[in-house]
Design brief:
Layout (H helix, E strand, L loop, with lengths): L1 H9 L6 H14 L1 H10 L2 E4 L7 H11 L4 E4 L17 H8 L15 E2 L4 H12 L11 E2 L6 E7 L2 H17 L8 E5 L2 H14 L4 E2 L14 H11 L6 H9 L7 H17 L6 H10 L9 H22 L5 H12 L1 H11 L8 H32 L5 H9 L18 E5 H4 L4 E6 L19 H8 L12 H20 L2 E10 L15 H6 L23 H13 L5 H16 L29 E3 L1 H9 L1 H11 L5 H13 L9 H12 L9 H22 L3 E13 L6 E12 L5 E7 L8 H4 L3 H11 L10 E8 L8 E5 L10 H13 L34
Parallel strand pairs: 1-2, 3-4, 5-10, 6-8, 6-9, 7-8, 9-10, 11-13, 14-15
Antiparallel strand pairs: 12-13, 13-14, 15-16
The structure holds iron/sulfur cluster (SF4).
Catalytic activity: ATP + H2O = ADP + phosphate + H(+); Couples ATP hydrolysis with the unwinding of duplex DNA by translocating in the 3'-5' direction
EC number: 5.6.2.4
GO molecular function: 3'-5' DNA helicase activity; ATP binding; DNA binding; exonuclease activity
Length: 875
């Protein structure tokens, strides 16, 4: 009413909660008749959470209920956690003096000692924390209302992963074994930004359904809202659109780009810019493209699409904000509608629902739940915008953005909370105030995070004002001493920890990482001092090693149970009794259709499905010279790589392929060097580099290879016959004919009229030693192909074969020549080697042979002698 009145008489006036209270008190003070009327109306006044009231609220209460009115206030000074909003726990101690009885006597204070929430063990533990708090202590002795069992567990872990694994285990155990519904459990953390999201991911992965409601996070940190706000900010304050913001927007649901798409977009923009003589880095080009999408028309459509979408949304926001009288709601609505996210997320929620079993269905359900959460967050954003417009009619969108980005805590919500469903609640300790659950986990209680003793202040310094009023700082406004501020902060943090631990009805688990306690590390993490305070005195010690270290038990999942039973059955050291019990349990699970329980599912026990050779006798075996070396070195690696195990092409291979392609233009040394370099430059951006900063060095390497090739060509005495010449020739054999196929980089004619095959190598190291060269399989296979008539149109006499190393750090290309096969003691060695390779490739068994390349083998996780592939078939 005040806001409406002032908006009509004085224009736009803003009121926050505290200001409304203050203004109401002002109105009543100015109007004795109104005050008297209000006091007559109120017979009893009840105040909840007295310890969290601020001076303005106390002032208003004094006006309407002071002077002997019937006032009943409830307080627990140990749980006051809103000093930053001006709350002062010491108000509890002075309350009975300030609100005296009608006769002027000090009002009576009653300590309530019966605790209806929990049992003895929990009360004793949280009481130990409370004892460390300053202030009145008369209320702290508590006894449980009934004999209920309660339990407290404090555990530290070596890593955050084991910590979240244990938390998941405890929650699953409580749900599956003790029957506690998910919704009667909660996990509390201190820091929204540092802890909430990572813990939620870990619990999801462990199959614990969790819910983080929109109001648990500050609005601007919510994943669904952050991109919308960022987009508005970049649209209305163009200087804010830098490379980081551009990348965030592209990867957000508004843009939908993935890292590959971003890289391709950068490459496309850079290629266009270079063609126009613009050397700017791709980050700048990206930002420009979002401001003015004209350039994007020339980039391949699928890579340009995310940037076009963002550019269009920025234009929409600008246009909507430029309309006279447009409110932040109008601008937000225009962007939201244009984004198309509403339809997409609604589509997902239609498929969402309660958590089900594993598999694809569960994935869909999680996505549905996530979409639900995102939609809730956007609704909360629109609510906030609506309230903002109500309070500040006519305020610009930029002011709304400042308002939202300034919120460090979840905003107060006037909307009722949505049904949270059957899921574990994940929230901050501040948000947990006033709530309780059967099982509560307080996770990530690390020194430095909790207590967080960084000195901080609110925008208006209300906490210092409270100190001044309470006489803890001088009236001139000089800040209290550093020590005083820190100790007040420690008190506030301890009270917050007390609030968190007192949310539990039956079971409390408090966890932290103690990396130094088990071996130490450079970035060791220490458990908070609060963990020691929770422990019984006899167990408590200032030494962190004294805290119990947790071990991760077997996960309470069916696959983990099946694995343990199978181990018990197959372990020769297992006692017969245990084996029998495990086998009976497995039979029961197999009957119920649990995957992996039936021995038919145990791969190691199965007969080979097919023991025939890879190529039937009499059928030709296809051999390519470039794979011979791999097959002869380790036939298992060759087999697995050939059937899907080869890694994707690396950036170095991409550069090598480009140099090979450029070399096709270089028949001899007279070729125009500029033309080759232009060819490289024109296609370089198509290579996928791991990082953009590598582009300069890799391109220089490619150009250096071209120069080395040209200098080698200038000294090469042979005459070129063909470049990139494909061949296919059959080596006849009644049992096992061999189809030798491939492509040679260069086919040349030597001075004696014999054919020489040249293979260009672009790798950074020379892997062929001079000793290996004489029987190098690839070169030998080329010579065998020549002799078999693969290049019959040019002749069939081989003059040898050569590798030309271009990619090493040596200044000049190095030619490694293999002598003509006919010149050695065994003229038929090359053909025999090809046949031996064919035998290897056509076999029915393939051997793992340890060799110098095992370290970089892409299939070692499937290799029985690498130590990683063993578990598939062996106990
Ligand atoms: S790790 Fe070594 S032995 Fe095993 S498959 Fe790879 S190359 Fe062969």
């Amino acid at each position: 009413m005040l806001a409406l009145r002032d908006a009509t008489t004085r224009g736009s006036v803003a009121y926050d909660n505290a200001e409304l209270v203050r203004a109401a008190a002002g109105l009543l003070s100015d109007d004795p008749e109104l005050l008297a009327q209000e006091r007559r109306r109120l017979e009893h006044v009840y105040v909840d959470e007295l310890a969290d009231t601020d001076p303005a609220q106390m002032g208003l209460l004094s006006l309407v209920a002071g002077g002997g009115k019937r006032v009943v206030a409830f307080a627990d000074p140990d749980s006051s956690t809103y000093a930053f909003r001006g709350a002062d726990p010491t108000a509890v101690g002075t309350f009975t003096h300030r609100f005296r009885t009608a006769s002027g006597a000090v009002a009576p204070a009653v300590n309530l000692h019966t605790n209806y929430r929990t049992g003895g063990e929990l009360l004793a533990a949280t009481g130990r924390v409370a004892r460390r708090l300053r202030g009145p202590a008369g209320h702290r002795a508590q006894t449980p209302a009934a004999e209920v069992t309660s339990a407290v567990e404090v555990r530290t872990f070596r890593t955050g992963t084991s910590e979240s694994g244990y938390v998941a285990h405890v929650l699953r155990q409580a749900h599956l074994l003790d029957g506690v519904p998910w919704s009667r459990m909660a996990v509390l953390v201190r820091s929204t930004v540092l802890q909430l999201a990572s813990l939620q991911r870990a619990l999801h992965a462990a199959g614990v359904p969790t819910v983080t409601q929109a109001e648990d996070l500050p609005l601007h940190l919510q994943p669904a809202v952050a991109p919308l706000l960022l987009l508005l900010r970049c649209a209305l304050e163009p200087d804010r659109l830098d490379e980081e913001a551009a990348v965030s927007l592209l990867h957000s649901p508004l843009g939908g780009a993935d890292p590959l798409g971003e890289r391709r977009l950068r490459q496309g923009l850079r290629a266009l810019a270079l063609a126009g003589g613009d050397p700017r880095p791709s980050g700048e080009l990206l930002v420009d493209a979002l401001r003015d999408p004209a350039e994007l028309a020339a980039v391949e459509r699928r890579w340009a699409a995310p940037a076009k979408a963002i550019a269009a949304l920025i234009a929409t926001a600008k246009e909507a904000a430029a309309n006279p009288g447009a409110t932040v709601e109008d601008v937000l609505w225009a962007v939201w509608r244009a984004s198309g996210l509403a339809e997409r997320w609604y589509g997902l929620t239609a498929r969402g629902g309660p958590v089900g079993d594993a598999g694809e269905e569960r994935g869909l359900q999680w996505r549905g739940v996530a979409a639900d959460r995102d939609l809730d967050a956007v609704v909360a954003l629109f609510d906030t915008a609506a309230r903002f417009v109500d309070r500040l009619p006519g305020a610009r969108t930029e002011i709304f953005l400042d308002h939202v980005f300034g919120q460090e805590l979840p905003a107060d919500s006037i909307a009722p909370s949505a049904d949270r469903g059957e899921a574990v609640r994940l929230l901050t300790a501040h948000a947990a105030k006033g709530l309780e659950w059967d099982v509560v986990v307080v996770a990530g209680v690390q020194e430095g995070i909790w207590p967080d003793l960084r000195l901080r202040g609110s925008l208006l310094g209300s906490e210092r004002l409270v100190d001044v009023l309470a006489g803890r700082a001088d009236a001139a406004g000089v800040a209290a001493s550093l020590v005083g501020q820190t100790s007040a902060l420690l008190d506030e943090e301890r009270r917050l920890f007390y609030v968190a631990t007192t949310r539990a009805r039956r079971r409390l688990l408090v966890t932290a990482v103690a990396s130094a306690a088990v071996g130490g590390s450079d970035h060791e993490e220490q458990p908070s001092r609060f963990l020691h305070e929770l422990m019984p005195v006899s167990e408590s010690d200032e030494d962190a090693d004294e805290l119990p270290v947790g071990r991760l038990p077997r996960a309470l999942t069916l696959p983990a149970l099946v694995a343990e039973l199978r181990t018990a059955v197959t372990d020769p050291a297992s006692p017969a009794e245990r084996k029998r019990a495990a086998a009976a349990e497995l039979a029961r699970l197999a009957l119920a259709g649990v995957p992996g329980a039936h021995p038919n599912d145990w791969w190691g026990l199965r007969e080979l499905s097919d023991d025939r050779p890879l190529v039937d006798e009499g059928e030709p075996v296809k051999v390519t010279p470039s794979t011979m070396e791999s097959a002869l070195r380790c036939s298992l690696r060759w087999l697995l790589e050939r059937h899907g195990g080869s890694p994707p092409a690396s950036a170095a291979q991409g550069v090598g392929n480009l140099v090979h392609a450029a070399a096709m233009l270089a028949e001899d040394a007279t070729v125009d060097r500029g033309q080759l370099l232009e060819y490289i430059a024109g296609r370089f951006d198509a290579i996928e580099l791991a990082a953009q900063w590598m582009a300069g060095a890799e391109r220089a390497r490619a150009e250096a290879m071209v120069d080395k090739l040209l200098r080698w060509l200038a000294t090469n005495p042979r005459r070129l016959l063909a470049i990139e010449h494909e061949f296919a020739v059959r080596l006849a054999d009644p049992l096992r004919p061999v189809d030798l196929t491939g492509r040679v980089d260069r086919l040349e004619l030597d001075a004696d009229g014999r054919l020489v095959v040249v293979d260009l190598k672009t790798g950074k190291t020379t892997s062929v030693t001079e000793a290996e060269l004489a029987e190098h399989p690839q070169l030998g296979a080329y010579q065998a192909a020549v002799e078999a008539g693969a290049f019959a149109e040019h002749g069939d006499e081989t003059g040898g074969a050569s590798l030309v190393q271009l990619g090493t750090t040596a200044k000049e290309a190095k030619e490694q020549a293999q002598a003509a096969v006919g010149e050695g003691e065994e003229p038929g060695w090359a053909g025999a080697l090809v046949r031996r390779t064919a035998e290897t490739m056509a076999a029915s068994t393939f051997h793992a042979v340890a060799n110098s390349r095992c370290r970089v083998c892409p299939v070692r996780s499937s290799c029985p002698i690498s130590g990683k592939g063993r578990q598939v078939v062996e106990p």
